[in-house]
Structures are given as structure tokens and as C-alpha cells.
């Protein structure tokens, strides 16, 4: 299968955490170019933090897109030039006040390759120890909670946790038999 060929386009809008591009692409079989929108975003990370006692550290926070409070793992955006592992450690500390004894890379996924060009890198953080208080960004408000692994599995089964990238992180852990 051949790829579509970019024949034009440009930046439509700049936002704080992503940009929106309009791209014109010719189909591989020929024909007129078509227009598509692409969300140009930095890479993201998700961290599944687990204490030495076996509790999973989670975040309850309001999400603007769905207008609901969700239950998630810590995560965030990679700063320019920042390796995902560094982002994972930084976001874990900022959002929970915990530091990881060991950070295990689980791999990465495309969040939505139909319209986005970034990756979400997933990590398991073992042996997490509280070293301070969370330091949320000015536009963040969240609560740090801990739950035993068995309860988190129930949350996943019952749809209490619905963030697709969070579910992916737990799936990667389960596939590797790490939790």
C-alpha cells in the first residue's frame, strides 16, 4: 500500500498544548487532493505508580473535555527536548509528590493516529515513596488517592476508569505480567 502524498497545507491555529494544521494530501491512486486536519502535539506520558506496599497511586481530577471528574494515573506532556523517561519522573513527582524506585518502560502508542501525530509513552513506576507534596500547574486541580491493585482492577472492569490511554497503560502491564 502506498502512502498519501502531502501537496500543501499549513498551520491553522496555535494553542497552549497543541497546534492545528490543515494538510492537503493526494491519494496514492491519484485524483484530486483532499484536506485533512492534524493535531500537532508533543509526546505524552502516563505513569502507573505502585508503592512498595502494592497500592496504586491515582489522580482524581476534573477534565474539561468531558466535564467530569475522572480517575487516572499521573501523566503529562513532554517539554521540548525532554526525554519521555525524564517527563515520567517529573510528572509523577509534580502530580503526586512520589518518587519512583524503579521506572519500567512499557512502550508507546499513538493516541489517535487518525488526527494526531504524537505518541503516548507508558511506564510502570515501582517502589514509589512519598517525598513531598504535589505541585499542580495553575490550571490543574486534583486529588491524590491510593488503592490496592485488586481494587484498581475492579475499577477497570466496571468502567470506573475510562481514559483510553490509562486503560492502555494497564493493558501493557498485564500483557507483560508486571502487576
Structure overview:
The structure is a single chain. With 179 residues, the chain is of the alpha+beta class. The chain has two domains: 5-40, no CATH class; 44-176, Nucleoside Triphosphate Pyrophosphohydrolase (Alpha-Beta Complex). It has three helices and eleven strands, in the order βββββββαββββαα. The strands form three sheets. Strands 4, 7, 8, 9 and 10 form a five-stranded mixed sheet that branches. It has a three-stranded antiparallel sheet with strand order 1-2-3, with no helix packed on it. The protein is elongated, with a radius of gyration of 19 Å.
Mean pLDDT: 96
Gyration radius, in Å:
19 Å
Q: CATH H level of the largest domain: which superfamily?
A: Nucleoside Triphosphate Pyrophosphohydrolase
Which fold name is given in CATH as the topology of the largest domain? Nucleoside Triphosphate Pyrophosphohydrolase
Overall geometry comes to: elongated
Strand percentage lies at 35-45%
**Count of β-strands:** 11
Q: In the residues, how many domains can be counted?
A: 2
CATH architecture of the largest domain: Alpha-Beta Complex
Oligomer: single chain
- How many alpha or pi helices? 3
